[in-house]
Write a structure and sequence with these properties.
The chain has helices spanning about 5-20, 25-30, 65-75, 105-125, 140-155, 160-175, 180-195, 195-200, 220-230, 240-245, 255-265, 265-280, 300-320, 325-330, 370-375; strands spanning about 60-65, 200, 335, 355. The strands form 2 sheets. Strands 1-2 form a two-stranded antiparallel ribbon. The radius of gyration is 28 Å and the shape is elongated. By secondary structure, the chain is mainly α.
Length: about 425
């Protein structure tokens, strides 16, 4: 590790990352180059849209979501600390968090990516070096192996000749500037990889037909592998999938189907399905719920966290059994701990969750889970809109009117004020 204050290390790395006239300018230029825009040959004209079988939109560059980032880092580098926890939250579009047009990099994102890259790289070098340094020697050959193998996993494809050369030059410069400290040079090179657009984004250039311009272009093997793994795992493809992709075997529908089944049967397949269903049900952020303590005195952040874990256990149980929407809607399972034991008429439970079979007259299925009612409720007391009318039924739009109200059913206290809404 680098001797001296951590701030000095960050300053040097940051200068290398941002310099426009030094070595990193070369690295950034090589690594952040946008895919070349494909143009039709001059003697061919793209067909009018009306003549196409269908209109396909351009494939955008997709920035990894926080969940995808964390899953990828956990699967490839063994870091399970959720390093994206401080990243800006994604905008939710149509119920999901991976809308490419809305998910954009901000100034805050850049800062968080730098901090996460430093933390991840330091943790790997301190605790999990074998994941990225399979060689016994600490020399240039080992560095080359690291660049090729780790780069391939992080970029989800084999590195280009230019990319390998740029990383090699960067490694050598850091190695020289740090008095031959091999591990520091590897750590800083890993930091750069983790901040490279080829890692943070999913690029899809496809294969352009060489003789006829066509709006529809097939994906390259590694691009198809990434689509499959991020769909089913919300994470990067493993070596098996990449090997098949680079050999061109994923183009075979039989092989593709077999790999899809393999991914679904893996534990990471359950993680991907749970993420999809949680977003679809808007149940991925239950632990962040807040309530007005005056109107909800029994609510606490700890209870919200318990709701989240209870729902996750319920979802995992439902998906591991029949795995259908019907099964989730009629399941009689409820997971409770000491904070939730009253929901199941239990007592004496501890912080561990216990599966309880509930009578159908009390709770049945997804819609009666505590998290469902808790997430659907308002964070504050209900605020009804009252229209004041005169004796003829005409709206009264003037202030100074006293409105009396009583509870038709139930118990509680009506509080608040009235105001005129034009």
């Amino acid at each position: 590790m680098l001797a001296g204050p951590a701030s000095s290390q960050r300053t040097l790395v940051t200068l290398m990352l941002l310099s426009r006239c030094g070595l990193m300018a070369l690295v950034v230029a090589v690594l952040s180059g946008c895919p070349k825009k494909q143009e039709p040959p001059p003697d061919e004209i793209p067909p009018p849209l009306a003549e196409c079988d269908g209109v396909a939109d351009r494939t955008p560059m997709r920035l990894l979501t926080r969940a995808e980032f964390d899953n990828t880092i956990a699967d490839l580098l063994g870091d399970t600390t959720n390093p994206s926890k401080d990243f800006p939250r994604e905008p939710i579009v149509h119920g999901f968090d991976n809308d490419a047009k809305s998910l954009q990099v901000t100034d805050e994102s850049v800062t968080r990516y730098l901090e996460a890259a430093e933390s991840i790289a330091a943790g790997v070098m301190a605790n999990r070096k074998d994941r990225i340094l399979p060689c016994q020697t600490r020399d240039t050959a080992c560095a080359d192996t690291f660049i090729s193998t780790t780069g391939r996993r992080l970029f989800r494809r084999a590195l280009t000749v230019e990319e390998r050369a740029a990383f090699k030059v960067f490694f050598q410069q850091v190695f020289a500037s740090q008095n031959g400290n091999f591990e520091t040079a590897i750590e800083w090179t890993l930091q750069v990889m983790l901040q490279s657009p080829q890692f943070l984004y999913r690029f899809e250039e496809g294969v352009v037909p060489p003789t006829k311009w066509d709006m529809r272009t097939p994906l390259l093997g590694p691009e198809l592998a990434s689509r499959l793994s991020y769909l089913l795992w919300a994470s990067a493809p493993d070596d098996t999938l990449l090997d098949l992709a680079e050999a061109g075997q994923l183009e075979d529908p039989t092989v593709l189907e077999a790999q899809a089944k393999r991914l679904l049967s893996d534990a990471r397949g359950m993680r991907g399905r749970m993420r999809f269903v949680s977003l679809w049900l808007r149940a991925d952020d239950i632990s962040r719920l807040s309530k007005d303590p005056v109107n909800y005195p029994n609510f606490s952040p700890a209870l919200a966290a318990a709701w989240q874990q209870s729902f996750d256990l319920f979802l995992r149980d439902s998906l591991s059994r029949e795995g259908t929407l019907k099964a989730m809607l009629v399941s009689d399972r409820l997971y409770v701990n000491d904070l939730m034991q009253s929901y199941a008429n239990r007592s004496g439970l501890n912080s561990d969750f216990t599966a309880v079979t509930m009578p159908p007259t009390q709770r049945l299925g997804l819609l009666t889970q505590p998290s469902a009612s808790g997430a659907s409720g308002l964070p504050f007391a209900q605020q009804p809109v009252v229209q004041v009318q005169d004796s003829a039924g005409n709206p009264v739009a003037q202030g100074g009117i006293t409105v009396g109200a009583v509870l038709a059913t139930g118990t509680g206290t009506l509080l608040g004020t009235t105001s005129v809404v034009s």
